[in-house]
């Protein structure tokens, strides 16, 4: 059985904008392991802090909870200006761009990422779940919004795992917070992704030598001196 299944809750949730998707048998969420790196300043580190407190109290480190990031797909698309502009031409293009960004983020952050998109207006559509490279994508079933799926997921898993939800929907944020989950607004998600991207770029430059590399740097001293004096390569024509 797929690990992302969520079971129906008795309460309803607000409706959101819908989008099409292809059909696949519904499945369900179960636990899965992930490794997480450091977090940027200003982003909650509740799990790390709590773990340190437990070490002081009991002398035993608390096991780090598995981490999940649920992204309210269309909410993020219409909140990010660049994706919103793409969506005005092609909603599929905007969705694909967001998924690619989340794939890169997952590779840096090493948490499980689940992007959720509405398909509730599609008659007869069943919940579709698929893998897109290194992340997971959910298209909701008929009469179910992304909000409802995320809220059920949070209700079932928010206190067992380290769950973060990325959305700028105010009502959804209130409901999610009540389930013990962390929240990232669309702006905060973009800031965090930029943070990890910049760190990755910095690490890469550091591994490459920490500075600019010029064409002449790798040449033997005699060859370089000849070129700088306009004499060309040794043995060559001047």
Describe this entry's structure for a reader.
By secondary structure, the protein is an alpha/beta fold. The protein has a domain at 46-202: Rossmann fold, CATH 3.40.50. It has eight helices and six strands; from the N terminus they run H-E-H-H-H-E-E-E-H-E-H-E-H-H. Strands 3-4-2-1-5-6 form a six-stranded mixed β-sheet. The longest helix has 22 residues, at 186-207. The protein is globular, with a radius of gyration of 24 Å. Mean pLDDT is 73; it is low at 9-55.
Brief overview, please?
The chain is α/β, with parallel strands linked by helices and 238 residues long. It is built from eight helices and six strands.
Q: What is the count of helical runs?
A: 8
Q: Class by helix and strand content?
A: alpha/beta
Order of strands in the sheet with most strands:
3-4-2-1-5-6
Binned, the helix content reads 40-55%
What is the CATH domain class of the domain at 46-202?
Answer: Alpha Beta
Q: Which of globular, elongated, flat, extended, rod-shaped describes the shape?
A: globular
User: Quick check: average pLDDT?
Assistant: 73
What share of the residues does DSSP label as strand, in percent? Answer: 5-15%
- Following the backbone from N to C, one meets helices and strands in this order, namely HEHHHEEEHEHEHH
User: Biggest β-sheet, characterized?
Assistant: 6 strands, mixed
CATH topology of the domain at 46-202: Rossmann fold
Q: What is the number of strand segments?
A: 6
For the record, give the distance between the C-alpha atoms at the N and C termini, rounded to a whole number.
Answer: 74 Å
Contiguous low-pLDDT stretches (5 residues minimum) are 9-55
What is Rg? 24 Å
CATH architecture of the domain at 46-202: 3-Layer(aba) Sandwich
